[in-house]
Amino acid sequence: MLNTNTNINQVGSTPIVLGQSTMTNSLPVTISSNQSNLPTNLIQINGSTVLSGVGTASTGGGQRVVLSYESTEKYNIARQYQSVNTHTVRSILAPIATGTTYFKPTNWAATNVANLADGNTIPGQFFVASAATTDTNKIVVINGYNNTGAFLREELTLNATNSQTPVTTANSYLGISKFFYKIPSTVGVGNVFINYATFTGSAAPTLAVAQIDSGGTANSAKINWVSVPSGYNAWLTEIIISKPTGSASHTLILCRNSANSGGNTSVGSTSREEIFRWSIMNLANFQCKYDGFLIPNTSASGQNTVIWAEALASATDATALVSISMTFLFTQ
Q1: Separation CA 83–CA 62 (nearest Å)
Q2: Residue 143 falls within a domain, yes or no?
Q3: Alpha-carbon dihedral angle through residues 259, 261, 264, 267, given to the nearest 10 degrees
Q4: Which range marks the domain in which residue 317 is found?
Q5: pLDDT digits (tens, 9 = 90+) for 89-116
Q6: Which of 43, 74, 144, 291 is buried most, with the most CB atoms less than 10 Å from its CB?
Q7: 168 with 146: CB under 8 angstroms?
Q8: Of the candidates 163, 196, 216, which is a domain's last residue?
């Protein structure tokens, strides 16, 4: 075949013009491998102006974006669902005597743990006072929930002249999930108590819902119980157990006491129902995290249920400490 020079100046009787043109006046081409960047300016999608920044679909503030299924992360469904009805309690227990269960936190000074008994007004205002007279004007923060499980929070200043004189909460609570000094460096002269019944702080009360330890040893109360609203189920969505000190293996027991026959519920009741047990291994820095499960409501209408954790000592262990964190979700 002979080499010939070709000079194309027409296609279909139409002269070829150099440079850019419209689609109808252009030939189909393949982009070359060394094509320079083509400038783009995306102004509209389907006739709607493209917006930058954060917006909401309901107000037309943003375009829909679809994520591929490969990018989806999977979570335990109970842990994933967080709402105003989700509450976390944390505590430290000391199972030190063989065969004995411990449900009261370390350094607990009151005689018993109080819960809002069925005969009381639910929810109700709580009272706060110190065992010392000189914890005046110290500010505490209360996180809790009402009879629908909804989150409540307030700040409360101890009595300005005598901190043994109780001050009353503004909110009405069914239970308390957190009770602490607003300023972390605060050192209490006496234990500070919160309870559903009025009391004098001159001595440790017979009952207390929660206690902030004196001397700055723990500026947040240790709580390992919840009151379940009447007619509600409780999801234990997560529990974390650790044993920072000790020389033996122990057991953590989740317990429940429901009022089915008109009686009052009680944390630590001997008529408790065991819901579940976990082994606390004798290992250095032992820690386990468990996804939770549903705890169905079993109380009679209008009566509440209390759920708490207690540690069972399998051997004498004078240095044993068990830390727990439990997250609950109340649902109907």
Answers
A1: 25
A2: yes
A3: -40
A4: 77-104+225-331
A5: 999 999 999 999 999 999 999 888 877 5
A6: 144
A7: no
A8: 216
